[in-house]
Request: fold
Amino acid sequence: MTKKKNAVILGGGVSKFGVRAATLFDMLQEAARAAADDIPGLKPSDIDGLIIASTMAGRHSNALNTAPLVAQRLGLKPTSICVRIDTLCSGSNTGIILATGLIESGIAEVVMVCGAEKVYMPQRWETNYTQLMVNDHDWDSAMGLGVPPPFFAMIAKMHMKRYGTTKEQMAAVSVTNYNFGASNPKGQFSGKTLTMEEALSARVIADPFTLYDCCPLSDGASAVIIASEERAKEMSDRPLVYIRGTGQHATHSVSANWPGETLAEWPHLKKAGEIAFKAAKLTPKDIDVLQVHDCFTISEIIELEELGFCKKGEGGPYVASGAITLKGKHPVNTDGGLLSVGHPFGASGARQSLEICRQLQGRAINQVKGAKFGLAHNLSGTCAQHTVIIYGTEPVD
Amino acid sequence: MAELKTAQIVGTPALDGKYIAEMDQWPLECPEFNRNYTFYDNLRAGRFTTTRCKKCGHIAFPPGVICPACWSEDLEWVDLPKRARVVAFTETLAGAPAGFDCPLIIAWLNFGKDAPLRHLLARIINCPEGKLKEGDEVQFVVFEVPAHPIDVKKETKICERVFYAFEPVNK
Reply:
């Protein structure tokens, strides 16, 4: 058997995230242009595969068979793969897992993985109404479960009750992430810093969440280039960032089949993390910088527990200790995360992976000194599926 | 730049006021579209049911046409518990999705340690804002939801629909 190839992430780009006066395709073109600026040697003709992650394309942009439409707008003529995928909030990190498999097996050489969402419609109610279609339509959605805050608010209430987590600890997450995101030119809340006092006194969204506990709805697009090690060396002089291990675990869709004892336990994330760490031959101690899915402040707290960065139930004190800041043990969401950058569902994963890539290449805005290993995580749906990718400056073997 | 005008627009003109089932938030419940129509027939009879596998005994929720544990097609309909306790809940006081009134109360329910359905996220109705408490007992309740048209040969028939939620036992 021939040895499998190594897959690397070269770099990429994102459009401006936020409430955009732009179509899905406008933002994808912006992301591709930003990727070309990020990887000076990159030409459209280098790319043999396209994976586009989008959940809303079919509904909000009337683009059901999305991939060929994107290929045309980006001037790509893929020969290995041209496909749209949808795993909601983990879309483009799922695309990176698929691209890795295609490259390691030799089916593809250079794949552009992009993600994009246009969620804001001419009338705001349409956006909220469509959110009913992203859960399990005939069951949980028919209960009125649309936009995520009510569900995650219940998660927060249970975590507070079982483990004593406080609003101040949750605010430590939003304060850290907003202050990281202030320097991100592409973020929805670029330039906005946040104090503990502001976070705690903001208006209530869904008790116990106030405004800054919740990530916004966002339009936006992202694109990264995943390539074989050999092709990457031809295209870029930067340090190589290898995809060392991945894990994705889905357990249910309807709430009745939630795998935890209560909503405060996320065993499906624990397992996804274990699978990725095993493949990467690393442990949480080795990780220098990470991106976790901070759709809500409580999410980041539980994710750090389940991924093994602190003990179960100690996520609150852990984030409040400063461990997630630039000077901390494991800096988290150094580009601002979902809370500050915004969350165009399918686009978030590639945005996270791009930040990890820049960190490991030593060129991030909020650089973690000497970072060698990084992790990116998404949850998707009503916390139904977890996706983990571990990167490193060296390959596994 | 095009000028924005204030105008009275009623519906999407090309659709001429037609009902769009694919844009609806309720299931297609009729036998012409759903092999689990028995679930909805049972709702009409006041029963909360699902499918149990006759081969391995697994009770699945939601119901299906195979058993998700062993993929057997040999299934029967069984009743589920109709009372549960509220573990946690949220009240949406503004901005509920179109088709749902405020307060939209969504609760995490526990059916008990030995119940075939352990927990479920469900809407609580017939309950004023600020009344529900953690630990409250709630009961299953069925209500009508909008009907939709269905083409049967050359005729258009109406498919009436129901759905379920929970309500406080002590109102």
In short: The longest helix of chain B spans residues 37-44. The radius of gyration of chain B is 20 Å. Residues 149 and 158 of chain B are 5 Å apart (CA to CA).
